[in-house]
Amino acid sequence: MITTATTARERMQLAKDASRSIGLLGDEDKRRALLAIADAIDAASDDVVAANAEDLARGRTTGLSDALLDRLRLDAPRVAGLASAVRDVAALPDPVGRVLDERTLENGLRLTKVAVPFGVIGSIYEARPNVTVDIAALALRSGNAVVLRGGSAAERTNAALIEAMRGALRTRGIDPEAIQTVDEFGRAGARELMQARGLVDVLVPRGSAQLIETVVTESLVPVIETGAGVVHIVLADSAPVDRACAIVTNAKAQRPSVCNAVETVLVVRSAAERLVRPVVEALHGAGVTVHGDETVAALADGVVPATEDDWATEYLSLDIAIRVVDDLDEALEHIRRYSTHHTESIITEDAVEAERFLAEVDSAVVMANASTRFTDGGEFGFGAEVGISTQKLHARGPMGLAELTSTKWLARGAGQVRA
Amino acid sequence: MITTATTARERMQLAKDASRSIGLLGDEDKRRALLAIADAIDAASDDVVAANAEDLARGRTTGLSDALLDRLRLDAPRVAGLASAVRDVAALPDPVGRVLDERTLENGLRLTKVAVPFGVIGSIYEARPNVTVDIAALALRSGNAVVLRGGSAAERTNAALIEAMRGALRTRGIDPEAIQTVDEFGRAGARELMQARGLVDVLVPRGSAQLIETVVTESLVPVIETGAGVVHIVLADSAPVDRACAIVTNAKAQRPSVCNAVETVLVVRSAAERLVRPVVEALHGAGVTVHGDETVAALADGVVPATEDDWATEYLSLDIAIRVVDDLDEALEHIRRYSTHHTESIITEDAVEAERFLAEVDSAVVMANASTRFTDGGEFGFGAEVGISTQKLHARGPMGLAELTSTKWLARGAGQVRA
């Protein structure tokens, strides 16, 4: 039994109560707590792997796909990897207490805007045990309590990891109620988490587009929307063929299952004859299935006919859609219609055109002459990644620890009243 | 007829389409557009006052209260005041294009995080025509299109103001569809605005606590919650009597109808005998009705007995609640229970106690030895105020133009691919 609280609501209240002391912890206390958590995960490795074996056995009987079973699977090296990731988070600078603005009014009132923890961060995610550890570590590093709701398929694994993490907090004299799970309450627990306005300050869903859409639609708690990426690369009139092949292939095939992988390539008509065949051949060479419009199919061999659905699909696989557009205007129009506003890139030698693309495309990250795979907290140098926000409120693009903080104005006076 | 669009949805689509060109306007273009709007409001003064007279006449027959009629009323000087406020917004610096972060990766990829407009800002508010002009001006200054839904009681006044503003944009060669209203569609229009995820980027409700609660609960569009202030002042053991009287009276009586006015005073028991009587007398002298607990009633004359409801009430009137608490811990507990996390202040000579209060109170603005009336965009030096956010996501406390922008990462490369 993880805690004595018997309802999801009670668990969240415990997290909120704990958030008060967690929010006041200093940098060093939080760092040591995370190192203790990493050690505890290492020490619990056998228990975690055993719990995971139960989840895997249940998953096989309930018909989980091989891909899902693989995401769920933990062995000793993977558990060690989880602990190691916690140590990486421990080493990051404390985002709390940063002074973001300072001003002294004419009457002498001193105003300071400081970064403070949100309080309680909720996360709803699918059966990936690494997210359990990841989100808990990031939340604690930024002074927040956390309420987790992982997929039911990983329930025993998550429980073992959470027990280890809570035990580590206890040994450091820190309130273990700062890490909560509502997994045992199933879908009802997820619903209560989404309704917990006033107890939970922000909800970060992680997983499929469908999961995120459900949370965005149903949650009364403010949500940071992450994830889905129907990502575009535009090949402009002046795009060098080598660069086009290298960037498109890298953006698709280097790791096709992630949100920053390209899904659609738009080739400007004037460059189609020059670029389509070599780009398709490069993609074929990397094992990619190319879904193309009629022009693309006429210019290259082995192209699968694309339908309207292809333009809106986040394949997350070794598939790509290619369409020939009349000009940059039509490319921008296509992007407005189908993009999830995650990342888009243009390949061009024309600096004016590049700057137009950077200015006009309304996405979290807009690139010229680079692979979309760079949209990543690690690549951006944040040291950790909470997710990639595709919304415009609060955080946009790769989120680091700073995005898990809010702000507070402190006003220090000597009796000032308003005239 | 304001536009040819016949449904609320079409209006919002027009706003979104217009937001593309509005978002690319330069500082000077936006400034001139706002000056043209100010001139147009001045020029339309007679029409606006006439439209307002119709609203007032209808309001009288439908039984609007005198207070609501007064908020609704526009005469020539008030219309001139609206135009003047637009000129003030025009004079503010452009929040768009600010470089918020810059980094160059080892591979030479240059990353720049810039402030960009949200796109389309929605606002749902009550029958105050000044909000119509205010929100439109702030939205345009920050490069956003705007969809307005004012109270139906102000429909004709709002229509006249919006027509003037749209006309001014047209004369400047700017797409007038950047200013939209869904007023004619009544409650259905408000509902559609709250459902318009994907067309409207952020919704800023302004008005009563009930209006804001409805929007927060029903909106699928991300909301910035503003407003309600159950604001507390704590009088600590060492609070000087003169300072306590001056700050409490100022915070309550200088302008009782606003969200940063104090509603509850918590007096630490050790200071009660010394402070309660003079503070109550000072409040009585300012025409304030004091609702007090039994201890307060025993220490001062003319105290109305307070009930549980008083602690949770935002009076917005010349009423105040006073309670004696055992110590700072109990004061903090009371604040946690009843505060709307807007503004709280402590009066104390003890610097350690002041810093504890500043650290532990979880509100947008936390003060020591100052009147809560300073929580205000104008007082903070923002030049304009979009509202006072009581949420933790995106913006907290007084919001200026910067809070009406999102961000975008620009990545300028030379063919970089990920290893």
UniProtKB/TrEMBL annotation, chains A, B:
InterPro entries: Ald_DH/histidinol_DH (IPR016161), Ald_DH_C (IPR016163), Ald_DH_N (IPR016162), Aldehyde_DH_dom (IPR015590), G-glutamylP_reductase_CS (IPR020593), Glu-5-SA_DH (IPR012134), GPR_dom (IPR000965). GO terms for cellular component: cytoplasm. GO terms for biological process: L-proline biosynthetic process. The keyword Amino-acid biosynthesis applies. Its main location: cytoplasm. Residues 4-285 form the Aldehyde dehydrogenase domain. It is found in: Cytoplasm. SUPFAM superfamilies: ALDH-like. It holds the Pfam family Aldedh. The keyword ATP-binding does not apply. Pathway: Amino-acid biosynthesis; L-proline biosynthesis; L-glutamate 5-semialdehyde from L-glutamate: step 2/2. Keywords: Amino-acid biosynthesis, Cytoplasm, NADP, Oxidoreductase, Proline biosynthesis. It catalyses: L-glutamate 5-semialdehyde + phosphate + NADP(+) = L-glutamyl 5-phosphate + NADPH + H(+). Its EC number is 1.2.1.41. GO terms for molecular function: glutamate-5-semialdehyde dehydrogenase activity; NADP binding. Belongs to the gamma-glutamyl phosphate reductase family. Catalyzes the NADPH-dependent reduction of L-glutamate 5-phosphate into L-glutamate 5-semialdehyde and phosphate. The product spontaneously undergoes cyclization to form 1-pyrroline-5-carboxylate. PANTHER family: DELTA-1-PYRROLINE-5-CARBOXYLATE SYNTHASE, GLUTAMATE SEMIALDEHYDE DEHYDROGENASE. This is Gamma-glutamyl phosphate reductase. It comes from Microbacterium thalassium. The lineage of its organism: Bacteria, Bacillati, Actinomycetota, Actinomycetes, Micrococcales.
